[in-house]
Amino acid sequence: MTKQRRSSLKSTRRTLIKTVGVAGLVTTIGSSTVSAQSNDRVEWVFETENNIQTPPTIIGSNVFIGNWAGAVYAIDSATGNEIWSFQTNGSVRAAPTVVDGRVYFGSSDNNVYCLDAASGNEIWKFSTGEVLDREGVNSSPMVTGGMVLFGNRFNTDEDSGIYAIDKESGEENWTFTTSESVTASPTVVDETVFIGGQDGILNALDLDTGSRKWIFETERAIISSATVVDGTVYVGSSDNNLYAVDAETGNERWVFSTGGPVDSSPTAVDETVFVGSSDGNLYAVDAETGNEQWVFTTNDTVQSSPTVVNNTVFVGNRDKNLYAVDAESGTERWRFKTEGSIESSPTVVDGTVFVGSDDGNLYALDTNVSDSSGGSRIDLGTLGHHGNSSFLSSEMDSSEEKSVSSENEDTKEVNSSDNITPNNEEESSDSVPGFGIGTGIAAVGATSYILKSWLTADTK
Where is the Pyrrolo-quinoline quinone repeat domain (predicted)? Predict the structure, then answer.
């Protein structure tokens, strides 16, 4: 169910802020503690009608996200304009994966979808079974070796917790039975699938067959998605620990204890593992020894997964802030406050950080740093990725590259009754492109919203 739109009704751009008058802004805020640097950080804001907890994926000039209302969006990364949206019958809680011109994602309606990346048209969908309340696919798909791998949430004593399906046809290749649901996302390295489940078990599975190589048991559920660097698997557990496990044998190398469940997914950069905890802290841990390098304390739970760019760590928080933290010292560089909790994991591309919030908005913010997200989480494509993520190269080597073209829209019919978007907006046929009456109203409202965000922000 797809709808294509190219209007500015759903986005607020930095140019809009400049248009309404910088002098008026300065006069209004007076002695506000918000710095000019923070004011200028917003590039655009894209509004949806429900929580955005999915990490953004950025490929080419498009940003792909989902929300709890069950919609997936393709958004122009430069302008914040909507390109298309696709509606499911559940909630979309994990990052879309975009490979070879196709978008793969799961929904709590118990389906995994494959869409054309240019048009948003459905190519296929795969059902994991009967729709159950709050169940379904909350795992970000991993696309590799010609397969789509993902975890499955179910409501029985045991079921197929992990699936591998053909990425071209959507037909099942293999399944792996678990005793409890799997909401974590898979990571694949050296033909091995690493994924944890709510039974507290980290599984290592053969990519081709789904047969188990080894297991590593923790004391509580594994919500965190594993990352792998230099033969070591790093994964968090709700038993308050971050574990380092030998990727070949499954033997424990070290354990690092925090003061709360570790549902944040770790990322490793330059021999340091960064991870958040429900104790309100962001930790930097030595990848080799498990010793703490530093701790950064926030005001609430850190379920967002960090990303690292040019010695800066970006992470969201339930206190509604996106934090930028010095990767070497753990000192705060700046923060940006939204109107909702940030459980979405940020992704940075060419100096712009994209992050969702429970206020229903996707934010594009200037980071004042160059380059794009590094670190193992993004590089392996575990939770969100961008065009330079290394897993894309290995997947392209194993399959013929597909072109992304809007001409592909005609390859599948879409019934007009299925063209559902959350706001059901219609554009006036006689409006001036890009600035009709509706756009003017949206601009005023959006400007007021951003001003409110600035005035309530706690910046340093």
Answer: 112-215, 227-299, 302-367
pLDDT digits over 299-312, tens only? 999 999 999 999 99
Q: Which of 102, 70, 95 is nearest to 1 (CA)?
A: 70
Q: Which of 227, 189, 198, 173 is nearest to 377 (CA)?
A: 227
User: Which tokens is 250 given?
Assistant: 């499954």
Q: What is the CB-side half-sphere exposure of residue 161 using CA atoms within 13 A? A: 24
Give the 3-state secondary structure of residue 125: strand
Mean pLDDT to the nearest integer, 198-211: 97
Domain ranges of the chain: 2-456
368/291 Cα distance (integer angstroms):
30
Which of 147, 167, 143 is CA-nearest to residue 393? 143
CATH architecture of 2-456: 7 Propeller (2.130)
Helix (H, G, I), strand (E, B) or coil at 318: coil
Q: Tokens 């009967």 belong to which residue?
A: 130
Q: Are 127 and 171 in contact (CB under 8 A)?
A: no
Nearest Cα residue to 83 out of 450, 421, 410, 431? 421
Instruction: In the chain, count H helices and then E strands.
Output: 6, 34
- Measured between its terminal Cα atoms, the distance across the chain in Å is 44
Which residues are CB-neighbours of 296 under 8 A, at least 6 positions away? 281, 282, 283, 323, 325, 330, 331, 332
Contacts of 366 (CB under 8 A, 6+ apart): 40, 41, 42, 43, 351, 352
Mark 268-304 as b/e (b = at least 16 C-beta within 10 Å): bbeebbbbbbbbbbbbbbebeebeebbebebeebbbb
Which residues make Cβ contacts (< 8 Å) with residue 444, sequence separation at least 6?
Answer: none
Cα 336 to Cα 440: distance, rounded to the nearest angstrom = 26
Confidence class for position 18, pLDDT limits 50, 70, 90: very low
Give dist(CA 261, CA 124) in Å, integer: 37
Average pLDDT over residues 124-140: 83
For tokens 């001036």, name the residue. Answer: 432
**Rounded Cα gap, residues 229 and 25, in angstroms:** 47
Distance CA(249)–CA(113), nearest Å, equals 34
Lowest mean pLDDT among 141-155, 245-259, 386-400: 386-400
Bridge-partner residues for 272, per DSSP? 269, 286
* Model confidence at 426: pLDDT above 60: no
pTM above 0.85, yes or no: no
Rounded Cα–Cα distance for residues 146 and 396 (Å): 9
